[in-house]
Design a protein that fits this description.
- This protein has a 3-stranded antiparallel beta sheet, with no helix packed on it. It has a 3-stranded antiparallel beta sheet with strand order 4-5-6.
- The chain is built from 10 helices and 6 strands, in the order βββααααααβαββααα.
- Helix 8 runs parallel beside helix 10 and helix 9 runs antiparallel to helix 10.
- The protein is α+β, with helices and mostly antiparallel strands.
Length: 317
């Protein structure tokens, strides 16, 4: 009946907190949970010796430290590495979803961020996509805006990302269409989020195969090839890729709405027809994403070919 987040503190110690209603939680590769109430089982869970282990090993002193704080006891806080790798990613999203936060993005030196925040407005699917695609473009320090990456801050969206996903659960709908994974292969900034429903019996073959070596069959390598080409000139090609995928995601949303409406009208009286409707939709959007990716790959390849031809256009040749 809610969303829980679990963090491990090593030594076989862990705690989990239920994220309060109407709030969001942002974390990078670090410990962020703080409050723990051993008597509130509705909102907190833990390993049996979470606190006693911390006391025994000098991580927590009740007399000196007061109320137990999981982050202070179990989380290493390294200004140098976290200041580059983790703090900026947390702050950029908190500032995105709560613009009233005044913390200076260029002077982030501590892990002292709010844990759970109520966003300035209700967050939707597009807000989460934008967060996962973020590379500091909204604060004017995108590492991809220059020929050589600015490495002063590790962005959220990086090229080595293999898979990005958003999980959506709508309890008021049948689970077949109420549970959706929006999956983007590779770097989210240069990829498309494809809605993948719970209900279908099968998925387009290209999405089920893969190899460490580049191939022409898997969805992974289709998206990867496009992203590799686009990164040759991010400022030029990212605009082309993002514009096309943005249109596709908008089209997916319209088709989803229509399909779900029809599904709800027939799933009780004709479940077989409803199931086939969902299967056909799933097959279509997955293939549409591949077709668009092939189209974009050819557009960029054509442009790069023309550029190479111009660069090596010898006199009289």
């Amino acid at each position: 009946d809610g969303i829980w987040y679990l963090e491990t503190g090593s030594g076989h110690q862990w705690m989990a907190a239920k994220i309060p209603a109407n709030t969001y939680y942002v974390t990078a590769n670090q410990g962020r949970l703080e409050k723990f109430d051993i008597n509130d089982k509705e909102n907190y869970l833990s390993s049996p010796t979470l606190i006693s282990f911390a006391e025994k090993n000098g991580l927590y002193d009740p007399k000196k430290d007061g109320e137990f704080n999981f982050k202070k006891a179990y989380t290493k806080d390294d200004e140098k590495s976290d200041g580059y790798y983790n703090y900026p990613r947390v702050l950029v999203l908190q500032k995105m979803y709560n613009p009233e936060i005044k913390t200076d993005f260029n002077d982030v030196k501590s892990n002292d961020f709010p844990v759970f925040l109520k966003p300035a407005k209700k967050l939707g699917l597009e807000d989460i996509k934008a967060g996962l695609r973020n590379h500091y473009e909204n604060v004017g320090t995108s590492p991809y805006a220059t020929t050589y990456p600015d490495t002063t801050k590790r962005p959220i969206s990086v090229f080595r990302t293999q898979h990005s996903h958003i999980l959506q659960v709508r309890k008021d709908l049948p689970k077949e269409i109420g549970n959706v994974r929006y999956i983007a292969f590779g770097m989210p900034t240069l990829s498309v989020y494809v809605p993948v429903y719970y209900g279908p019996d099968s998925y387009t073959e290209a999405y089920t195969i893969g190899s460490p070596q580049a191939d022409n069959a898997s969805a992974h390598w289709k998206f990867r090839k496009l992203q590799t080409l686009a990164m040759i000139d991010f400022n030029k090609y990212s605009k082309i890729v993002q514009a096309e995928y943005s249109k596709q995601e908008a089209q997916f949303a319209k088709e989803q709405q229509a399909m779900e409406k029809e599904y709800l009208s027939i799933y009780k009286t004709d479940p077989a027809k409803a199931k086939q409707l969902l299967q056909d939709f799933q097959n279509k959007v997955m293939q549409d994403a591949l077709n668009t990716t092939d189209k974009l790959t050819n557009i960029i390849m054509q442009d790069l070919t023309n550029s190479v031809n111009e660069r090596y256009r010898f006199k009289g040749a």
